[in-house]
Batch of 2 targets.
Target 1
Amino acid sequence: MKKLISILLIFSVSITIAVSQRYFSDSDTTKLIILGSGTPNPSPFQSGCSIAIVVFDTPYIIDFGPGLIRKAAAMSPTYGGKIKGMEVNKIKRAFLTHLHSDHTAGYPDLILTPWVMGRDEPLEVYGPEGIKKMTYNILKAYEDDIRYRLYSSEPANDKGWRVNSHEFIKEGIIYQDENVKVEAFPVPHGTWPNAWGFRFTTPDKIIVISGDTSPSEKIIEYAEDADILVHEVYSKKGFDSRTEIWKKYHSEHHTSTYELGEIAAKINPGLIVLYHILFWGSSEQDLIDEISAKYKGKVIAGRDLDVF
Ligand SMILES: [Zn+2]
Ligand SMILES: [Zn+2]
């Protein structure tokens, strides 16, 4: 009986996961996957901030919020998903908007788990000033684990745990290969000195990712012809219930639904996907209604594992 119950449980869990995935993509070439739509708040329904862009079968990760590797695995054929580029040992390139912990708490996972699963070349990471130091310190923190895996009876290669970190300091193209061109642009994020957004150009899509930002002219400049603008947002209704001190913080660091509506009306992108969403008790529909007060185009509140 116990066995039967556990089988039923496993069955119902896998059904729940399957139902919670939404598929919006119209492209065989480029897929945008929300690995984590969350913020520093540890919502069980929103993993930490992370996105994957998969071009053909090559993945590019943007931001390393906690939970990203589990969410990538959920999309991979190994775990019943359909996206080959989400096999975790294929994850070799990653881009970071800024070093805040909700965007980097998954960094050790990004370095180590794909290696343990067989990645046999170094991770290439592109991030703002400070990424080299963070990378060095993470590898230092895990040196005993790395040494043990390399020199115990565990089969492990000596390349996949390594990281080549590249710091970009200037606006413009920071990476290019046969699948993508990646441009970085600075965004305002309170007094945090080094926050960036990205524009990915693939063979068939232009995708702009806001990163963490208050309303930014740069977004308008870079997202003018975007097929998809992935933009952070907080609920205005939720914001109104916050204390004055938090209101000051959020208005300096982030973008409200009304502000995003105004930005969107100037750009008119093909689709806006909301991520890094601060709900504070509001619903997805509340957010969309607030944005719709200023903007009539298509807006979807991103959920973990959505494919665009
Ligand atoms: Zn953040
Ligand atoms: Zn931030």
Target 2
Amino acid sequence: MDRETYIDTLRTELVDMVKENLSPVAMDYGYSEAPLEANIKWRPLVLVIGNYSSGKSTLINDFLGGNIQATGQAPTDDSFTVITYDDSDTVSESPQVHTIEERDGKFLMNDPDYPFESLKKYGQRFAAHFRLKKVNSPFLKNLAIIDTPGMHDSISEQDRGYNYQHVIGDLAEIADLILVLFDPHKAGTVQEAHTSLKETLPVKTFEDRILFVLNRIDECETLMDLLRVYGTLCWNLSQMIGRKDIPLIHLTYSSHVAQQHASETSQEQLAYLQFLENQREELREAILKAPQYRLDHLATFVEVHSERLTHFLETLIVARKKNILYKTKSVITGLMISLIGGGAVGLGLILAQLIPFDHIILPSTAGGSALLFFMIWLNFIQKILIRKHLDHMIKDIDHLTPLETQTRKDSWQAIKNIVIRFIQRTKNKTSLWDMQADYGMVEKIHQHGAKDVREALNELSGIRENMSIDPRASLLRKEDEFIDIYPLGRNIFTGAPIYYT
Ligand SMILES: Nc1nc2c(ncn2[C@@H]2O[C@H](COP(=O)(O)OP(=O)(O)OP(=O)(O)O)[C@@H](O)[C@H]2O)c(=O)[nH]1
Ligand SMILES: [Mg+2]
């Protein structure tokens, strides 16, 4: 088995783990409305965002090896285009890279095979600006790319007809790699880019999934000019992302476009470009690593959701236990009050000489009164008390769970409202037994599943590109018949050793 197949197998196993173990619990308890794996089951995704005319579409066309996306000066394309692989074109049999099929946004958002169902909420205007292209470029064999409308200064949500930042945020959430493009003319000064980097991306993705690219550098007339632009971009970036250390910025340009633009005189001044030739190639290689980033992404996904679900169920169990304890105390209190009340009634009636002191009449009157008191207690008073207890619990919800570390505080922030909604909806009556069983299963994934995934990833980073992996190392392998060659580690799910040859 080669490295790519191994990555693919690992990915499938991870998605299955989410699907079989985390999703059913997440949906049963209202933690998530859609199956958790809906967003992660598709191919690795690379999102390309940036200023208008920063060269997003040209860069994508260069990597795909064909004119797939429209390009041009001034805002050219105001659509989100998902570009994925398809080599099923047997009709034209053209060796050239071309679009084999195009589908509209409605199709993309309604087909459960694609991870875009959640974008339906952005309405018709967005649907009209969303589309799919299937292209026969080998570059797309293991990943899909999303080209996006350019960012502007003076465009509003009303002009676009949908909330652009929210769409970018949702796509960033499922993307494995995000390319943020700038160009020398607008090096980090565009308002929408500012909002994306300062507000949208930090809450939707992780720093290490973002690659910054200063594109069209051939348009800097001299090396000094490039350094000036680079400095400006660094300064603007540090303001936007709030970091003192400046992230790596790839300095790239499209050589074929540059050749068309460059005049004879500028050729000499642009000699410095030869030192940056490798940047485009580095960027290409980084993009091609997206399937591997996807594994990291999935591992983080399993870690985060298993941790939150564990925290969520743990809190519900504490709430339910408190409810049972309160109910038990209330029943005992009601019983005591009813017995005392029944006794007092019997005694009162005797003292008032309304009943004779008789060993049958007295106990039955006292017992009957006690029973009546108890029924009233159970059916009215206790119900009111439990409702008040529930209200009090929700008001004081933070006391249900210890929040000793920042991780706990973060996960509590993410689940707090779901806990409140669940307790209100079920009136805290869910079976403790069922919750404990679900907790046990999710906790196991949290403790072992996520850790094993990380171990498998570490092992994978030790396998060189051209190294082939023994097929017996497949995570799908069920039997233990192997020769002891060189164990890489343990199969995540079966615990069996993994080998490469
Ligand atoms: N000189 C030079 N021109 C470039 C380069 N990349 C793109 N261009 C030109 O810049 C213009 C804009 O390129 P596009 O690829 O359409 O830019 P975009 O970011 O997709 O633009 P929108 O989709 O409108 O946001 C086109 O005329 C390209 O030919 C480059 O590296 N160097
Ligand atoms: Mg474009």
